[in-house]
Amino acid sequence: MDELNNQPGFVPPAGEPNRVNPMSPNFMEGAPGPEIPPPPPVLNNPPIGETPGAFVAPPIPPAPSVTPTTNSPVSPPPPKQVDIRTMASDQSSFRTSGGTGVTPQAMKSMGKAPKKVDSAGRPVGGDKKKALLIGLGVVVFLAAAAAVANFFVLPIFLPDVELNEPPAGATEEIVEPEITPTIPIFTHVSYFTEPVDVSAEVNVNTLSLESLNAALDQTAVNKADGETGVVTEFQVTQGLTGSPVTTDEFLATLLPDVQFTTSMEEDFTGFMYDTGTEVRAGYIFALDAETADLEAAKTLFEDTFEASTSLENLFLNDPGTPAVAFKEGAAVTGIETRWLSYSNPGTSIDYGWKGPFVVISTSFDGFKKVLPKIMEALPLADTTETATTTET
């Protein structure tokens, strides 16, 4: 194999190939290089107003869309810078570079800047304001409910409970109990000097002529046995407590058409006389023990009594039609009498005075029977004093 001389300065003989040692430092000298194609000619943009040649404008990339963030109150990032080539920008760039090339220019966004909104699309402070209003409403509602319960509900279920505490330092005012004056309540004392055959109590719920007549009729039925001459003494009381009915109350009920102005004792005695066929009633009233002029008081009582047109209320049965006026009657044991006759046989009203007592009877026989049994003077009244104490 022929050895190639690759020493420096060596010139191969003519007609021989140029064989060079690959290890020689001049191995690459004179070697043909690769062929590089020339750059394509730069097409110039035609002047404004002339028909363009084969120049094709690059496509305009779409502008990025900005979507506001809805899940975070942080505002979206600013849009990226986009370079866009246009005919005008290429001409300007070509003139600036001296014909060496064109450079794309930045495209300014023509849209409006996006507004910064929160995730809900409303002001951030709206939730705080709404919460404040709700809290205030709850406080007002609870205060109103407490006021209603304090002044309307609790007094219904707890009427004796003091809802409001007394102010500090206030002293409780001591109220002295008010004592009403003592009221003497009389105790019934019979005007008979000795007990009669029967005693009874005539009680009415309310004092009226109807209730009084009904109670007297019932007493007459219960006590009458048909035996002639039997005398029954009775006392008129009222209510469950059996309060005695006074003379003024009794006369105002039996004889409502007249008003007695004569001062009378509160207590009186009633009696019934059995004729054998029916029962007749009678009454014993007394002038006030402090009456100074007995004769004047007797005359005043007689005038008022005889002027009444309701005398038939003294009878337990229908007496018939009365006579025109009272007449002087026969004296009984020295006591003068006056009487008024009625149309029914044996029926009359007889009355007379024995000391301060006036005896009125619807039976003349009954008048004569009880007159000797009546006392000569008023007894000492036995009264019971009561006092009512009330606190204000």
Structure description:
Helix content is 22%, strand content 19%. It has 392 residues and is of the alpha+beta class. It has a domain of 191 residues. The strands form four sheets. Strands 5, 6, 7, 8, 9, 10, 11, 12 and 13 form a nine-stranded mixed beta sheet that branches. The longest helix is centred in the middle third of the chain and has 32 residues. The chain is rod-shaped and about 185 Å long. The N and C termini lie far apart (156 Å). 14% of the residues are buried. The C terminus is likely disordered. Keywords: Membrane, Transmembrane, Transmembrane helix.
Layout of helices and strands, plus pairs?
Elements: E1 82-84, H1 87-97, E2 105-107, H2 126-157, E3 178-179, E4 183-186, E5 198-204, H3 209-223, E6 231-238, E7 243-244, H4 247-254, E8 269-274, E9 279-286, H5 294-306, E10 327-332, E11 335-341, E12 348-354, E13 357-361, H6 364-370, E14 383-386, E15 389-390
Parallel strand pairs: 5-6
Antiparallel strand pairs: 1-2, 3-15, 4-14, 6-7, 6-8, 8-9, 9-13, 10-11, 11-12, 12-13
Features:
single chain; 392 residues; alpha+beta; 6 helices; 22% helix
Number of strands: 15
Helix/sheet category: alpha+beta
Order of helices and strands: EHEHEEEHEEHEEHEEEEHEE
Radius of gyration: 71 Å
Q: What is the number of helices?
A: 6
Q: Largest beta sheet, briefly?
A: 9 strands, mixed
- The low-confidence runs, each spanning 5 or more residues with pLDDT under 50, are 383-392
Q: Into which percentage range does the β-strand content fall?
A: 15-25%
The best one-word shape is rod-shaped
Mean pLDDT: 77
Q: Give the fraction of residues assigned to helices.
A: 10-25%
Distance between the termini: 156 Å
Keywords: Membrane, Transmembrane, Transmembrane helix
